[in-house]
Design a protein that fits this description.
Layout (H helix, E strand, L loop, with lengths): L1 E9 L5 H16 L8 E7 L10 E7 L3 H8 L1 H11 L3 E9 L1
Antiparallel strand pairs: 1-3, 1-4, 2-3
């Protein structure tokens, strides 16, 4: 089993009013990928980090094996979700994959 953790900040131009709505859309659409992407076992989306955090949100996924990270990254459903609900609004991406 492997874990894929990604953290982001919102782009500076995203207003406070929009952040909650965007997080809801990100979470809903990223979690829906568990039924679509082979090897993707779980998706957790952290929307309320504590004040000591350096990022606005985090995605924590569990996959069956290391090779599934590439499957997930390139899967058309993931690319569509990322391009529609995540990438237009975020910056400062950090990623950590581990077994």
């Amino acid at each position: 089993m492997v874990h894929h953790v990604v953290m982001w900040n919102f782009k500076p131009e995203i207003t406070e009013d929009r952040k909650a709505e965007l997080k809801v859309n990100m979470e809903k659409n990223l979690k829906a990928l568990t039924d679509v992407v082979p090897g993707l076992l779980t998706v957790d989306f952290i929307t309320a980090p504590i004040p000591s955090s350096t990022h606005d949100m985090a995605l924590i996924t569990t996959l069956e094996k290391k090779e599934d990270i590439a499957v997930y990254a390139n899967h058309p459903a993931h690319v569509k979700v990322a391009d529609t609900y995540v990438r237009p609004y975020v910056c400062d991406r950090c990623c950590l994959d581990f077994e």
